[in-house]
Design a protein that fits this description.
173 residues; 42% strand; alpha+beta; 3 helices; disordered N terminus; 8 strands; Alpha-D-Glucose-1,6-Bisphosphate, Chain A, domain 4; eight-stranded antiparallel β-sheet
Length: 173
């Protein structure tokens, strides 16, 4: 399921929120660890040739860790640095942009354990595009749709890893 929301914040920055949920039949800790694995991220984002070039470039991210990614989006090689700013294993973590193409973003990852043992994985990607009115137009015309597709593809890859033995390649049991 996905949910898109646009809002105007008090400082007149137009922001968008993408909310995605999936039910995953895998242990909560495995899914949490896959979502914060630099190596699993690289494997799940092959369409953009994501490469970790600075900071934490392999393994599992922890509170305060930063990673700088280089990737091709819209045909342009871009660099983005994010930091883990909130961390409550195995329930939630947030990565926030430190520098990059967006005006700002916060990406919350939630892992809600269900009574049947499955996990409700919820992504909340809250961002603002740069360039004022041009960013507002970009958000509505293509950026939110592009980011939604990107996040859905990444989530599908993480779910496939978590629901098979592939997760063992990225997370120490």
């Amino acid at each position: 399921m996905s949910y898109r929301h646009f809002s105007e914040t008090p400082d007149s920055i137009v922001a968008a929120t993408i909310r995605l949920t999936s039910v995953v039949r895998a242990p909560q800790q495995v899914l949490f660890d896959l979502a914060r694995s630099v190596d699993a991220h690289k494997a799940s984002a092959t369409q953009t040739d994501e490469e970790a070039i600075a900071g934490t470039t392999e393994g599992l991210m922890r509170l305060g860790d930063e990673v700088t990614w280089r990737a091709r989006h819209f045909g342009v090689l871009q660099t983005l640095t994010s930091r883990i700013t909130e961390f409550q294993s195995p329930i939630h973590f947030r990565d926030s942009m430190v520098s990059g193409a967006f005006k700002r973003f916060d990406h919350d990852h939630f892992f809600h354990l269900q009574s049947d043992g499955s996990v409700l994985m919820e992504d909340v990607f809250d961002y603002a595009a740069p360039l004022g009115p041009l960013g507002w137009i970009a958000e509505r015309l293509f950026l939110t749709a592009y980011m939604t597709r990107f996040l859905k593809k990444r989530n599908r890859a993480l779910i496939e890893m978590a629901e098979s033995d592939e997760w063992r390649s990225f997370v120490d049991p």
